[in-house]
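tool_call: predict_structure(chain=1)
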Amino acid sequence: MAQTPYHDRDGFIWMDGKMLPWRDAKVHFLTHALHYGTQVFEGERAYDGKIFKSRQHSQRLINSAKILYMDMPVGVEEIEDIKYQVLKANGLDNAYVRAAAWRGSEQMGIDVAGTEIHVAVAAWDWGQYFSPGDAGISLGTSRWRKPAPDTAPTNAKTASLYNLSCLAKFEAKQSGFADALMLDYEGFVAESTGANLFAVQDERLITPLADRFLNGLTRQTVIEIAAELDISVEQRRIKPEELSDFEEIFVTGSAAELTAVGKIDTHEYRVGPVTKKLQAAYSALVRS
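tool_result:
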């Protein structure tokens, strides 16, 4: 059954200082962000009425905007207040929260001068991002690679970078995979299309250095949890040929949470004890 389109739902969205009926939260066709990708955003989850790492997400939104030379009209405290207003207006305790800022339709062209910065926050009930089942999701290695840090704003969570992820995921699904594994510009393992990657070998975690893609807040959380559980974590470059050596693989993100990976290309992995232990600890933490 097809899902209800996001523009045609009930509820409320905060936009530019007003709590609007969901269907009235619109932007013009000639919005700068639509044509040039000048938008930054955050994806967050609320559990039992509390947004996990909410303040860190709000600060990252501000940081991403700064990287794109966007002067935000609201600060962290205001964003924090707005997000909870949106949850309350929509009667949600458990929800996905999307905060975004973008350049408007005040002018067109590559020059951003004269564009105003617009801000909006929405929230909705969004269950599992993936449906992994007992065996975990499958990833297919993409021909598309993550850009070098001096060719794209890799430290910003910006729409312009996710166009590449959309291409990679589309092609992966056409080939029968749930998502894509993306390599970096030098051919090392990077992440999936929207989630960071962890491998398990001899009961220790190995994860790519997050200096060529976004260092996810969930990624950082897992590293913190691992330290508390006395699970060692090694952050380094991972060669694709090492994938056959790993026993477990999982990906992390606010939407994906901790999702087990059962297959990458032809390599198969078990949903093993380390993954399950970290999943349980993460689930307990976000609801604490």
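agent: Residues 159-174 form the longest helix (16 residues). Proceeding to next step.
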